[in-house]
Design goal:
The complex is a heterodimer of chains A (91) and B (568).
Chain A (H helix, E strand, L loop, with lengths): L1 E6 L8 H12 L4 E6 L2 E4 L3 H6 L7 E7 L3 H13 L9
Antiparallel strand pairs in A: 1-4, 2-3, 2-4
Chain B lengths: L2 E4 L1 E4 L2 E8 L5 H6 L5 H28 L3 H14 L2 H14 L2 H17 L4 H22 L11 E5 L4 H5 L6 E6 L7 H8 L3 E4 L13 E5 L4 E4 L3 H24 L13 E6 L2 H6 L8 E5 L13 H14 L4 E5 L27 H4 L3 H14 L4 E6 L5 H21 L8 E6 L2 H10 L5 E4 L1 H9 L17 H16 L3 E4 L7 H10 L3 E4 L4 H8 L4 H12 L4 H11 L1
Parallel strand pairs in B: 3-4, 4-5, 5-6, 9-10, 9-16, 10-11, 11-12, 12-13, 13-14, 14-15, 15-16
Antiparallel strand pairs in B: 1-8, 2-6, 3-7, 7-8
Helix pairs in contact in B: 2-3, 2-4, 2-6, 3-6, 4-5, 5-6, 11-13, 13-14, 15-17, 18-19, 18-20
Classes of the chains: A alpha+beta (91), B alpha/beta (568).
């Protein structure tokens, strides 16, 4: 299992657009990816659960990744957080 | 005779069609449903989800192909929600638990909707209605409720709430109108109907239940009126109305591309009053030149905290871009004790219209005013923006606003944010004090915009919503005209432009004499623009000036009105 501590950079937080990107990303991987924040946790396969975390900009979240491709997934997830999930206008 | 039911106007127009009830109770179907084993129910549920999911995807594609992007986007959100494990797992678990798929679906959707409704995020709260819509759609499929058949005759959808998907699934030639019991004009169903210009009446409350399925109805969206089973005479009367409306529309449409100018070529700018940024886009079909009044209040209402700079920036930017290079005048927050907002914390006032409101609050609350000014200054980069302060009564206030504006610029500079240095600062002249002081105020502002609704009310001491004294409320009252003329002259003499953004600006007869006074901009609700333009194009400036001279010598509002209506 991999555990990452990542910061939300997008201005609107983990809002609809990033959450949608995570759902899409989840379809192409084998690992289970769970984001934990403020006592709540969300599997990234659920857009609603991710948004329900209420993680705003600058929130520090913990991401756990478990599965055969976890090393690659960890790298990709770190990258997604860092580039604002592909929405540079939200940074 | 028909049965008449009065509702509220949501989307104007006149429509005739056959009632199709939607969103009605599923209780009867529910009682008749015989559930199978838990396993059987789960597999029925899975089949239902697949079927509905495919149907949604298909309609999204059709909408995209038809260029109905706004509608497609809402339905696409449905598709995403339907794939979301949070909803589907909930439906699955519940079905396994109670072995009754339709009941489980509705309960799971309800729980999910409640969770969303309680969230601190507007986007998520809006999804709440979508989740309920999806739940009902799946339940209907499971219960074998026939999707209503649409025949040759166009239908009028009718229900306490009409699901957005119900409207989205009927093509333009088959839907005539929408009738709703609930009263919101900003719900998704109304937004979809508006994007397709489908006549809609809301706020009928429980009376929607009295309208029988299949009944013929005449929908007068201009009056918010529903006529059930209209008589031949009523149909004939409305047909004549529809025809007259179409003809007038044709005549006014023809004016859209023509300039607002007198027969001897003196031009005036006809701008739109808007409440939401998207109204600026919608105004284009009436041939507006920019926005003369953007009521920024909507940003501040219906929320628990002060809207931040970025949120305001986005809203202003959208309106400014829609103005296509013409000025977009943004009025700063005009709220007081009549619309108490929790975060403004205004104690009860006996006289909120003479109380702590508008600029009086803004100047004391930098936490409120600063993000608004910074949002506007930043949005100014995308076109031509102007800031207008409401309720001003003195030079001190204007100096105070200037100082905050300069501070806002300094902060933006320090933060390295892009902003416009050319944003004009003007005031709304709506108090007699401001009108009297315009010769002095003109030195400190870039423009005046006369807000006649309040100027008439404050000058004549007449509450404009009190029906007992509504006769006294008159923008042609000579006292009001004197103040308006004074304001315009003060602007002209000091080289500052003067506009008007109250109801009076949409009075074609008033427009003529205002032009003669020297006004250069008239801002009104967009649909009024063509009529005002038509009148302006029928007179010369010489004639207008002669009328003005006569009018200013008259002693009563009634005399003035009568003169203008008979001579222009």
């Amino acid at each position: 299992m991999q555990e990452l501590n990542l910061k939300v950079l997008n201005k609107p937080g983990l809002h609809a657009r990033p959450a949608k990107e995570l759902v899409k990303f989840n379809k192409g991987i084998e690992s289970e990816v769970v984001i934990k924040f403020n006592g709540k946790s969300a599997n990234i396969k659920s857009m609603m659960a991710v948004m329900a975390l209420g993680a705003k900009q600058d929130a520090e979240v913990t991401v756990t990744i478990e599965g055969p491709d976890e090393a690659d997934v960890a790298k990709a997830v770190t990258e997604m957080f860092a580039n604002g999930f592909g929405f540079p206008d939200e940074l | 005779m028909s049965e008449k039911i009065q509702g509220n106007i949501a989307i104007p127009g006149i429509a005739i069609g056959k009632i199709m009830k939607v969103g009605q109770s599923l209780d009867g179907y529910m009682a008749a449903y015989t559930p199978g084993s838990a396993e059987e129910e789960v597999s029925k549920l899975e089949e239902a989800i697949d079927t509905i999911s495919a149907a949604i995807d298909e309609s999204v594609e059709a909408m995209r192909a038809a260029g109905q992007d706004e509608q497609a986007e809402i339905m696409e959100a449905h598709s995403f929600l339907l794939m979301d494990p949070m909803l589907t797992d909930g439906m699955n678990d519940k079905t396994r638990e109670i072995a009754h798929a339709p009941k489980a679906v509705l309960e799971a959707a309800q729980e999910c909707a409640e969770m969303l409704a309680g969230m601190d995020d507007e986007y998520m709260r809006e999804r709440s209605a979508d989740v309920k819509d999806i739940g009902r759609r799946i339940a209907r499929h499971l219960l074998g409720v026939k999707e209503p058949e649409i025949g040759e005759e166009p239908v009028v959808l009718c229900g306490f709430e009409v699901e957005p998907s119900a409207i989205a699934n009927i093509s333009d030639d088959k839907i005539a109108g929408v009738i709703m019991g609930q009263g919101s004009t900003t719900c998704h169903a109304v937004i979809i109907a508006k994007s397709r210009a489908i006549t809609t009446v809301v706020g009928l409350e429980n009376r929607v239940e009295d309208i029988p399925e299949g009944a013929k109805v005449l929908l007068d969206g201009n009056e918010g009126l529903v006529l059930v089973n209209p008589s031949e005479d009523e149909l004939a009367a409305y047909e004549a109305k529809i025809k007259a409306q179409q003809e007038e529309q044709k005549r006014l449409d023809a004016l859209k591309e023509l300039p607002a100018e007198t027969t001897d070529g003196v031009k005036v700018q006809l701008a739109a009053n808007i409440g939401l940024p998207e109204d600026a886009e919608a105004a284009a079909k009436f041939g507006n030149q920019g926005v003369g009044l953007f009521r920024s209040e909507f940003l501040f209402m219906g929320r628990e905290n002060i809207p931040d700079e970025d949120l305001q920036f986005e809203a202003y930017k959208r309106a400014i871009v829609a103005c296509k290079g013409e000025t977009c005048v943004i009025r700063t927050m005009d709220i007081g004790g009549d619309k108490p907002l929790a975060y403004l914390n205004i104690p009860h006032e006996d006289n909120p219209f003479l109380g702590y409101r508008a600029i009086r609050i803004s100047l004391e609350r930098p936490d409120l005013f600063m993000p608004q000014l910074k949002g506007i200054l930043r949005a100014g980069v995308y076109g031509k923006a102007a800031i207008m302060a409401p309720m001003v009564i003195s030079v001190d206030e204007v100096k105070g606003i200037r100082a905050v504006m300069e501070k806002a610029m300094a902060e933006l500079e320090a933060e390295g944010k892009e902003y416009s240095k050319d944003v004009e600062l003007g005031i709304m002249v709506e108090t007699p004090a401001a009108a009297v002081m315009t010769p002095v105020l003109a030195k400190y502002v870039d423009f005046f915009s006369i807000g006649t609704n309040d100027l008439v009310q404050y000058t004549l001491a007449v509450d404009r919503v009190n029906p007992q004294i509504s006769k006294l409320y008159d923008h042609f009252n000579p006292a009001v005209l004197q103040l308006i003329y004074r304001t315009i002259k003060s602007g002209v003499e000091n080289g500052k432009w003067v506009g008007m953004c109250g109801e009076m600006a949409s009075d074609p007869y008033a427009a003529v004499i205002l032009m003669a006074m020297g006004i250069t901009e008239l801002s009104m609700s967009a649909p009024s623009i063509p009529k005002v333009k038509e009148k302006i194009r029928s007179v010369s400036m010489d004639e207008a000036k002669a009328h003005l001279e006569r009018v200013m010598a008259m002693e009563t509002g009634a005399e003035i009105r009568e003169y203008l209506h008979s001579k222009i």
